[in-house]
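INFO  loader      accepted 1 record
INFO  loader      residues=208
INFO  predictor   begin
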Amino acid sequence: MTKKVCTLFLYCLSLVCLADDSIESVMQRMKPEPAVQIAYQETRTMGLFDADWQGSGFLYAALPDSMLKQQLKPEIELMAADGNQLIYHKPSTRTYHHTQLDESNPMMASLVAFKAMLTGNLAALRQLYQLKFSSSELSWKLEMTAKKHEPDEQPLKIIMQGISEQAASKMVVTLPDGDRSSYVLNQPQQGQAIRQHLQELLQSLKSH
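INFO  predictor   done
INFO  writer      dumping tokens
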């Protein structure tokens, strides 16, 4: 009998521990040490198209302020936010853009939020979004609603979700016009080799 009571107590204690997730602990898990690589699958639902768009690739981030999205399918695209620089390259169409990342521009808001999340920058998220965090014994959810938006538009919304004591596994970005991008995220891989690869990708983009 004593053994059963002890087992039940330990089980209940484990549930309490699992429910201890906070926005700070989640963001700490997202922070790269020294760099992070996350495989992703993306689904875009757009009002002007009947069928959803599907894509996949890798997300990279490194402190203090670098993020890169490497889309591999359906075709290669590279987009990086490095400090205050925004760089985009699509080899198949020979498209290349290199400009300033304007954090006050609503069109760039989701990218700014993406960078802040991948680098664990909670202060930046709090500055741009109303944050609502909830957790249970099995999972956590962070809802972000943009503070700035046009009076006649819905605000940009981002929802991140994950299993308790793990980094995000899902993310949904809903734009003011109703278009939506849903991401399925693998658990982060970290290490110095990933940081080196990210630096090589950034250098290749900047020297294009």
